[in-house]
């Protein structure tokens, strides 16, 4: 009897739209099977069918030669399938152990001591250190993800689906996760790994399957180059590096002086920061996540009120302005967490595309909305940004993750701006869309906008930055050129000042780092 998981002829429709069209996919025990594909290709839908989250319209799921039907995730878990979601399904105010007790497919575990031992045993076995008594809300994202993995393992999952698990992780956390995935594979688990980061695919894949528009379009050899993988994904050659001329900076358009911001618990998270961003330049804020970058962006928009210091946009003090006022004054804003701050999920795509201008002509005249203008704008943006949607009248919640991100960028880049503040602008978007979005951000710069870009992706920083501001524990470690070597940048991200970092890097043996 064949062991393993087979998806045969899986079809999934939403209304008249076929999101997954007769897909065959095998997952063998002891392999990492990478599933690639452009935004909206149907990867998550296929996996949601496998995990019992969506009913299938055709085809079958076969485990160890036996066809199975899953009405819900509990059925899938009972059959040995686990899924690690990008937005974790954990209860924040519960401890690690309590979350594991809740997550049992056979009903809750009632023996707390036994559950705690199980956490310790699994976390040791797979090299995933976790404090069983810690509350989820106190844990960094990477550790919360470990808890999700432990939950699946506690259910004796034999097949594990990781749907874009690295999108929200720091480079160090990504390295840790890769090691965990490899040890799970070596223990005989079958893994499906969805990612848009081709370097990760090259590092870890045993097999690679590529989807496009709901179908499997091919398989690639594990050693394939990033360029070949990109071409197979989007169906054309992709420029993995944006071609950009040197910046022509004008006068500063964003001026920040001695800015201090506290988090809700009162801790100082931005600690006396000074910088300028000129019109016509891209200043990238680099740093390990959690060093004050998010709060800096929120304070610039007006989402957080600074304790002290000033923020000026085109000479006007906006330090205490509300978001609506900074947006109206010409700030474009791409939030770090699109699901929380990026859009209104029960609004349509068309409505979300004008959220920042819904009270202004041509979209509103007085109190009346002009639906003709709103819909025309939506059709144009859909075309221009290649937003894969059936209709601009659909709720934005029906879009795939990468297409939601494209809606936000399309909205923010479609009006004259003084300043663009963009956090992780290409999170979750495919390589083809990254090529386009990077070009658009550079065009925005070349039109004279001051661009502040927060990114934890060193490759993105290298591709886009004219200057790089490195943040560590709420302070500026230094502002350096974008040609600064990666190892020097890495040391600065750990708080080492530039001169010292250069001296240390010169003495250290060279090593490849994850971007
Ligand atoms: N609940 C839904 N209702 C209508 N359409 C949907 C629904 N869920 C997904 N779709 C559509 O199905 C298609 C496939 O989406 P899916 O999320 O599977 O793509 P994906 O390959 O995972 O993309 P990404 O890389 O952007 O995450 C998309 O066109 C999406 O708009």
UniProtKB/TrEMBL annotation:
This is ABC transporter ATP-binding protein. It comes from Propioniciclava coleopterorum. Keywords: ATP-binding, Cell membrane, Membrane, Nucleotide-binding, Repeat, Translocase, Transport. The keyword Signal does not apply. Its main location: membrane. CDD domains: ABC_Carb_Monos_I, ABC_Carb_Monos_II. The keyword Coiled coil does not apply. InterPro entries: AAA+_ATPase, ABC_carbohydrate_import_ATPase, ABC_transporter-like_ATP-bd, ABC_transporter-like_CS, P-loop_NTPase. Gene3D superfamilies: P-loop containing nucleotide triphosphate hydrolases. SUPFAM superfamilies: P-loop containing nucleoside triphosphate hydrolases. GO terms for cellular component: plasma membrane. One of its GO terms (molecular function) is ATP hydrolysis activity. PROSITE patterns: ABC_TRANSPORTER_1, ABC_TRANSPORTER_2. It is a peripheral membrane protein. It is found in: Cell membrane. Pfam families: ABC_tran (PF00005). Residues 5-238, 254-498 form the ABC transporter domain.
